[in-house]
Design a protein that fits this description.
Length: 424
């Protein structure tokens, strides 16, 4: 369903337990154990093919660099299954790679190589999707899509972080570990967000504020942009700044209010998200977004705002509830900055009745969305039963699966690790 507004404005339920992709062909499986007899903590030799492990026989769609692939960890403790599934969202085919108990995570090196980390070591098995060849490699210092990715500059040359008390912000050179810049905040001031420029390696944005009576950092918020090479403060803005998302073209910063940082405590976001236009210092708020409410429901919260790669639209989620009863409805939508249009990929999707979208990841080509839908919401501290799903932005091509079943856990959950294949 589409809405036309004038003016400017991840753990999923499955019909049955376990991984349940609807495939037109039988799944192909290759069981490869990670070699751990002599783990190497600091490899110094040139990586070479492993003579003890066979090459993989991969389906042809995996070797095509233009095939969108989601790699997702499938864990079932009850049936003692732990695999990485390579999922082709266009055809719903999958390829399964079994991993042993000393699995320590995985990541994409690049478009054609996936690394599976050996737990408690600095090494990984590198799987080449073009040739099927397996080599042992050192783990790179910064793996994509990890929780600290906002702390790393666009070219991964710098890392910024707050100290334990959120009083001191520092920037270090990731290649030499040399401290390049440091700022100590004034008394009674505390740091919150860190956001690197997507176009300038040297420009860093950060937020600071004061404590409210309830002990939350929500008062007198200030946004600062600094050039970390010389410490020059490029600009400072005062306002109701909270969570930040810098547009890919570097021209705008989207922000929510500072209270939504504490959403796990039941604090929702029902206000309009706003844009800071850096060239003019103007602020524009997208006031039509919180006005879209289905008949009979109330807006519980919006959230998880992410820019499209062209900076012309913004993805986000809705969660609604029925008055006087806990019955929720979720939606995943896109707001166009060109014509203020709101299109919702999951509009009318039956699995989102009594569920909400709690996380999602766009494929790099933005042709697919992997999302986690749950019985819980963004404003709850406890996780509820949830499932994984993939859908196209136009609302077609939906399918789902269960990513995680823990022994002793009453509910299935989404995949704990899942990453889209990078573009070529």
């Amino acid at each position: 369903m589409k809405y036309l507004i004038i003016g400017l404005s991840f753990i999923f339920l499955s019909a049955c337990s376990g991984f349940n992709l609807q495939t037109s062909q039988p799944a192909q499986t290759q069981n490869i154990s990670i070699i751990t007899e002599t783990p190497i903590k600091t490899p110094t030799v040139t990586p070479s093919p492993l003579s003890t492990a066979p090459s993989l026989e991969l389906p042809t769609w995996m070797s095509n660099p233009n095939t969108a692939i989601l790699a997702a960890l499938i864990r079932d403790d009850v049936n003692q299954i732990r695999k990485i599934h390579f999922i082709n969202p266009a055809t719903e085919e999958k390829y399964e790679l079994s991993v042993p108990n000393d699995y320590g995570g995985f990541f994409w090196y690049d478009n054609m190589n996936l690394g599976v980390i050996v737990k408690d070591t600095e090494t990984a098995q590198k799987f080449n999707l073009q040739t099927g060849q397996i080599t042992i490699e050192p783990v790179p210092p910064f793996k994509p899509d990890k929780f600290w990715k906002d702390s790393i500059s666009i070219n991964q040359n710098y890392i910024a972080q707050w100290d334990r008390d959120n009083k001191i912000i520092t920037v270090e050179d990731t290649r030499t570990n040399e401290m390049l810049w440091e700022l100590v905040l004034p008394e009674n001031r505390y740091g919150t967000e860190i956001e690197w420029s997507p176009v300038s390696e040297n420009h860093l944005a950060f937020l600071q504020g004061s404590l409210s009576l309830s002990g939350k950092i929500t008062e007198d918020m200030a946004l600062t942009i600094v050039d970390i090479t010389n410490g020059e403060i490029l600009s400072t803005y005062n306002g109701n700044f909270g969570m930040l998302e810098w547009s890919p073209n570097g021209k705008m910063i989207l922000y929510l209010n500072p209270y939504f940082r504490y959403r796990n405590y039941g604090i929702s976001f029902k206000d309009a998200p706003c844009l800071l236009i850096l060239a003019t210092n103007e602020t524009k708020c997208l006031r039509s977004i919180p006005k879209i409410i289905p008949t009979g429901y109330e807006l519980l919260t919006t959230g998880i705002y992410k820019w499209a790669s062209d900076s012309n639209s913004i993805f986000f989620t809705y969660t609604y509830n029925l008055p006087n009863r806990w019955s929720i409805l979720g939606n995943l939508c896109n707001y166009s900055l060109i014509d203020s249009r709101i299109d919702c990929a999951t509009q009318g999707l039956k699995v989102l009745h009594e569920r909400s979208v709690i996380n999602y990841k766009l494929s790099p080509n933005e042709q697919f969305i992997h999302f986690c839908y749950s019985k819980s919401t963004l404003v709850e501290d406890a996780a509820g039963e949830s499932s994984d799903g993939i859908i196209k932005p136009d609302g077609t091509g939906f399918f789902s699966w269960t990513g995680t079943i823990l022994d002793g856990s009453p509910s299935p959950m989404c995949s704990w690790d899942s990453y889209w294949r990078p573009l070529p």
